[in-house]
Amino acid sequence: xxxxxxxxxxxxxxxxxxxxxxxxxxxxxxxxxxxxxxxxxxxxxxxxxxxxxxxxxxxxxxxxxxxxxxxxxxxxxxxxxxxxxxxxxxxxxxxxxxxxxxxxxxxxxxxxxxxxxxxxxxxxxxxxxxxxxxxxxxxxxxxxxxxxxxxxxxxxxxxxxxxxxxxxxxxxxxxxxxxx
Amino acid sequence: xxxxxxxxxxxxxxxxxxxxxxxxxxxxxxxxxxxxxxxxxxxxxxxxxxxxxxxxxxxxxxxxxxxxxxxxxxxxxxxxxxxxxxxxxxxxxxxxxxxxxxxxxxxxxxxxxxxxxxxxxxxxxxxxxxxxxxxxxxxxxxxxxxxxxxxxxxxxxxxxxxxxxxxxxxxxxxxxxxxxxxxxxxxxxxxxxxxxxxxxxxx
Amino acid sequence: xxxxxxxxxxxxxxxxxxxxxxxxxxxxxxxxxxxxxxxxxxxxxxxxxxxxxxxxxxxxxxxxxxxxxxxxxxxxxxxxxxxxxxxxxxxxxxxxxxxxxxxxxxxxxxxxxxxxxxxxxxxxxxxxxxxxxxxxxxxxxxxxxxxxxxxxxxxxxxxxxxxxxxxxxxxxxxxxxxxxxxxxxxxxxxxxxxxxxxxxxxxxxxxxxxxxxxxxxxxxxxxxxxxxxxxxxxxxxxxxxxxxxxxxxxxxxxxxxxxxxxxxxxxxxxxxxxxxxxxxxxxxxxxxxxxx
Lengths: 180, 203, 292
What we know:
The complex is a heterotrimer.
Chain A: H1 3-53, E1 59-64, E2 70-76, E3 79-91, E4 94-103, E5 108-115, H2 129-132, H3 158-179
Chain B: H1 2-14, H2 25-30, H3 35-65, H4 72-94, H5 96-102, H6 106-109, H7 113-128, H8 136-166, H9 176-190, H10 196-199
Chain C: H1 9-14, H2 30-36, H3 40-63, H4 73-95, H5 97-103, H6 114-124, H7 129-158, E1 161-162, H8 166-170, E2 182-183, H9 185-190, H10 202-222, H11 231-234, H12 236-242, H13 245-257
Antiparallel strand pairs in C: 1-2
Helix pairs in contact in C: 3-4, 3-6, 3-7, 4-5, 4-6, 6-7, 7-10, 12-13
């Protein structure tokens, strides 16, 4: 190989290396700046969601159920007013993750949808209050109307409706297990 | 095993990479004019997808272990670019027949969003399907399914396009617009598979 | 070099709007266009994110154009673009988390958006910094405008809303007085109608794109411009596949002597600075941008 070729290879490699090094440094810097904001964002979002599903509570305490699930006990003036569970079930476009607030009397206080990736205009309508509010005050084993239950499924999105219902059922069952 | 089959069915039919997730549209529109080129391109895509997943999956574990997840995009795209180049050189030198069949498609794949897409989605799947213990084997199966889905879409569409060539369409719709509308109909037909994974009791 | 040339900044800016609109005329970046145009807010969010990356990468690549060796051009461009994409991704996650959630995998996939690599290769790599920035801005606006049109048609027809979810995107920066977008669904249901959901499904995306492209073709036809073609894909690399002989020859020559991941690009470095006005409408622009 001629010296000229080697020189050109070295030059190419060196300039690529420099660009990569500068890029990595820039990314590390931006990451260090944004990472705390991203972390506090998701913490704030979780806090807000917990407040939405159990509005009467003023603080939450993290606990672990006997089976290892992490849940939150809702407190008001130091008294337990219910629990908040995060459960998930298989929807049409992946897992649907639901946060359920359960009252001290074992009924649903409210639900919030954390992760959902369903079809826009169909399954995504699960986010609407008209669907979510159906769960309020219900207890026991829930089912959608197609399966003989009381929850009116979203039009053309039975799979999503079933997923939400099953996640709420899991939360109610978890409540039974921790309350007992 | 059931989960593996579910991944296959989802990748090929219900969540087809091209027709439902819009990844790899450019080759879908550009290389689907003839059946043999469509097949050649798809085979090259499957090959690179499998290879890229095999390399990036362990690499991602390394990035996670060292808290460098923010370098994911840059590392993955460079790995894919380098892999494609190496595969091309190796094939050219040692497996001439395969190179002749796939070689011309390889350079196109570097910036094919289907390849980077499958790699990133596989990393996302680890947490999304954690209940099913999504691991390396599953990642490979779902990459294969994604590639096979791409191939199915390409082959089907090559058939549609050969009919389209001779069709008499309004002037403004000639060329790409009518091709896109035909793609809409093919995509709509895939909606018919909705619910098949749940119906077969796979998930 | 190109520095001595006089640039018409206004023309460089506006060429991306219709004349060389990256989506409707050059047919680049089809994947994000189809995938993220399910609603106006989504599509415009994608458009703005891509525009920021495009302007930054155009500036950086133009500034480095004499330092980057031509052989290592493509990997260097990819590194630069990927860095800006990651930076934008982190900023979006930190300040507009709702957008990060709705764009999903398509946010990191801006890396392989052929508009960006295409502009780097066709323009920024050969032109001075300021005009490259203007080019990036113009192309970005064109991309965003196309996404807005697609998003508006699909959202109004498919979901019965317009600008839905705007509060989750800019609510943190601008006081919207509780405005959360228009919702026509209730009025529709009173008349016994429902939105045509198919428009926000993938099939509707293809259909809307086809119809809008036909309209753009008609508009361009009146102005005497050529039809939209798959230049992005039928450019160099694809030509071998698509059977255009003159480019096919170039492709074979390329693959034979290329050693870097630039085999899919033509040897642009030793090429004279390209005419940047629209006299040859988009003939070379984005030609070497690849299959996405």
